[in-house]
Amino acid sequence: MSATDTLDKTGTQTSAVRLGDLETPCLVLDADRMDRNIARLRDRIAGLGVTLRPHLKTAKSVEVARRVMATSEGPATVSTLKEAEFFADAGVRDIIYAVGIAPWKLAKVIELRKRGVDLAVVLDTVELAQAVAAASRESGMAIPALIEIDCDGHRSGVLPRDSERLLAIGKALVEGGELRGVLTHAGGSYAARGEEALRNAAEEERASVVNAAAILRDAGLPCPVVSVGSTPTAHHATDLTGVTEVRAGVFVFFDLVMTGIGICTVDDIAISVLATVIGHQREKGWILVDAGWMAMSQDRGTAKQVVNQGYGVVCKCDGTPYADLILADANQEHGIIMVRPGSDGTLPDLAIGDRVRILPNHACATGAQHRRYNVVHGTSDVVTGEWQRFGGW
C-alpha cells in the first residue's frame, strides 16, 4: 500500500483524500504547525513555573483540546457555557468560564457542577457576587467564582487599586459561594508594539492581579488562584511571581493579527481557508474565488496595523504565501484577490478551478464560520483527518 493510500472501515484499500478533492470553501488545519505552536508556549510557561490553562474558544474542537491541555481532564478555559458543556461531555473536568456570568446561567453552572465538573465563573460586581452566593445557598453547592481585575482599561473588571469594591465583592461572594481567586486579561496588549511594550504589558497584567490578591488576603479572604492571560503577554512575560496560571487561546493556530503584533510569523499560522478560482477581472487586476466574508469572517483586525492584510494572505495550495497577494475585498460568497496596493508583486497566473489557501486575520472568527477542520501536515496535500468543531452558545 502506498503512503498516500488508506484503508476504509472494511479494510479495503482506498486512495487518500487530497485538498483538490474537497468542496470549497473549507477550513484547513496544518497539524505540524499547530503542534509546534503548542510546544512553544507550553515549554515557555513551564519554564516560568506556572500552569497553562489553554482557552478552548479558538479551536472549539475535542481533538485540538486533547492536544493542548495538560491532561484529558484539563485545566481549560471556555468562553460560552455551550463550550463548557461540550468539553464536559468529552471528559474535561477543570474549567473556568471566563466571561462575566449572567444570573440566569447559574442554573446551567450548577447542573454541570453536579455532573462532577469543577466549573468556576467570573464576575466583577457586588450584584453578581450576591447572585452567585444566593444560588449557592439555594442549591446547597458553593459555586466558585473569580473576581475579574481590569489591568489595562481594555474591557471589564475591577480596578486593582479599588480595594473597597474588591473587598465588597469578595465578602458578598463568600456568603454562600466560594471565592476562588482573581483573574485578568491583558486585552490592551493587542495594541502594543515592540518587545519592550509587550514585556511591560505582561508585567502590568501580573502586578494588577498579584496586588488584588494581596488586598483580599490581607482582609482575611481566600485567593488561591491568580490567573492571567493573553497570547501576546504569555509570550513576553519574564516574571510570573505570584501568578498561579496563564490562559491563552489563539496561540494554538496564530493568525495575521498576531503576526502584525510580532508574536509569530506567517509561517506559524496553522489554519487557512481553501478556496477555488471562479473568475477573473483582468483589467482590474482581480482574481475571483469562492471564499467571501462568510468563509473568512468580516474581521479586519490588521486594518489598524502597519500592514493591512485585507481579508487574508493568499497562499499556494501547499501553504506557501504568494508575494504580496491578499484577499483585498469580499462579498458574502465572492473573494477578490489582488496584489497588495503599492507593492511590486505580480498577479499569479491562476486558472479557473485552481486552488489557493487564505490565511486569516483572526483565527477565532474565521474558525467560527466552519464546522470541521481538514487536517494536513506541512506542505503535503493529503488530508489525514476531519476534526469536528462546533459553534453557538
Overview of the structural elements:
The protein has 393 residues and is α/β, with parallel strands linked by helices. Helix 5 packs parallel to helix 6. It has an eight-stranded parallel beta sheet. It is elongated and about 70 Å long. The chain folds into two domains: 149 residues, D-serine dehydratase-like domain (Lyase, Ornithine Decarboxylase, Chain A, domain 1), CATH 2.40.37.20; 193 residues, TIM Barrel (Alpha-Beta Barrel), CATH 3.20.20.10. The chain starts with a strand and ends in a 5-residue tail after the last strand. It contains eleven helices and 19 strands. Strand 8, helix 6 and strand 9 form a beta-alpha-beta unit.
Which key features would you list for this structure?
393 residues; alpha/beta; Lyase, Ornithine Decarboxylase, Chain A, domain 1; TIM Barrel; eight-stranded parallel beta sheet; six-stranded antiparallel β-barrel; 11 helices; 19 strands; 28% helix; elongated
